[in-house]
Amino acid sequence: MGASDGDSATWLAGGRHGASRLATLIPTALHGMAAGITERNGPIPSGGPASVAASLAAAGGTKRLPKTGIGAEQALEHYSTLLAAGTADPADPSCAAHLHCPPLAVSVAADVVAAAMNPSMDSWDQAPMASELEAEFLTGIAHLCFPANPTADAVVTSGGTESNLLGLLLARETTASTIRPVCGANSHHSVSRAAWLLGLPAPVVVPCQDDRMIPEALAEALAPLGASAVVVATAGTTNTGRIDPLGEIARICRLSGARLHVDAAYGGLLLCSQSLAPRIAGLELADSVALDMHKFGWQPVAAGLFAARNAADLSALTVRAEYLNADDDTEAGLPDLLGRSIRTSRRPDAFRMAVTVRALGTQGLGALVERCCTTATEVNELVERHPALQSWGKPELSTVVFRPRGADDDLVARVRRTLLEAGTAVIGRGALPTGPDGTSQLWLKLTLLHPHTTAEDYVELLDRVVATAAAERGVPAPQSPVAS
Ligand SMILES: *Cc1c(COP(=O)(O)O)cnc(C)c1O
């Protein structure tokens, strides 16, 4: 059978003709994608959910699975156009709400090959080179996190959520008594969810100042718990990008015998930058670390990593299944992959991460992280100079938190939704405490993960926020101090 024989919808991506068949279909998909991007005039389709639903209905949405197919070319072109036209595109600087990065083309290209070869990471006989590449990459990640610990190891996860679950799971499995999670008021929601999933008591919540855990308050919380506690600190909070004082927290944990897991899903890749790494100093003192390469790292979702200072802790994940890792196979030298995850079938996400690091080096990745952090500092300066805007504080990573001066929470929320509905900007929101009494205030945030923008690219966006706030209040917009 030749490269273009038969119904193209039944072609296989692998095998002798796989590459040439993909080379036939991929241009069609990309053609559709390019058309969709042209259709969209901003970072997200305008008109909100109703308009997106209407586009799909107009395109022949049936609400039932189609009984007859339209063929590979038409389906690919049609759906690729729909997706690209209706996407929230983080490669547009105005799409900056979440820790939602624009993936690097090199990683996406690598993922095409990974998907075509489809190694499944649950047994060596499904993934010989993929598992070898993964192991090598993970040794590198373990060394990046714990340079002084040759016994460190790392595994791939679906993201910070799964990594935080593993952090608490390993704490539970390596501690004799009932483990008690302790986390900052600034911690990610997945920490208390992990405690719930694992049947652990709800976390003891340590108060924060400026979105950072207060060390004295942690020491106080640990006093009655001692070695039965597992502390979760955050290196890069979701709301503001603040970094907990990791060194001090690690010292307090040592003194009380508590385990320490650092949620560095956002800030972990600062390790790649010589100038920024000192900001997360103390990370290497943790027992385990969560880091996400689908934030800084510019990978498509999912690209989560979990590093353990002591590889032996990961043996808690060991499990036997006769059909995947029989004892005699393992004894005969076949690597046991099943114990490297809580999942069974697993995509080779490490492949595109490894290709990316091979292409850029950690130095190249670090330079991109630096760009984002510099841009955030500069955008915050624009906010500080703008008479109609108020800054929450200086960015520690790449999150700029601000609000229109004099706005109440309702206006802040409406400004965000108005811009979203218009399709002109995707801005985040966060309720931040105003004091120790539990009251909070709503702020807007830009999470800057676009590695090729400068502050200049956000001038118009800030002016738009000001103009929208003025329009919502029914007053004329003040002039921009920057553009004028
Ligand atoms: C993103 C993030 C998470 C959740 O990670 P997922 O990859 O979405 O599962 C957890 N903690 C922090 C601090 C994060 O920034």
UniProtKB/TrEMBL annotation:
Keyword Transferase in annotation: yes
Record-linked InterPro entries: PyrdxlP-dep_de-COase, PyrdxlP-dep_Trfase, PyrdxlP-dep_Trfase_major, PyrdxlP-dep_Trfase_small, Pyridoxal-P_BS
Gene3D superfamilies linked: Aspartate Aminotransferase, domain 1, Type I PLP-dependent aspartate aminotransferase-like (Major domain)
PROSITE patterns reported for this sequence: DDC_GAD_HDC_YDC
Pfam families linked: Pyridoxal_deC
GO biological process: antibiotic biosynthetic process; carboxylic acid metabolic process
GO cellular component: cytoplasm
Keywords attached to this entry: Aminotransferase, Antibiotic biosynthesis, Decarboxylase, Lyase, Pyridoxal phosphate, Transferase
Domain of life: Bacteria
Signal peptide region: none
Cofactor: pyridoxal 5'-phosphate
Family: Belongs to the group II decarboxylase family.
Name of the protein this chain belongs to: Aminotransferase class V-fold PLP-dependent enzyme
Protein's organism: Amycolatopsis carbonis
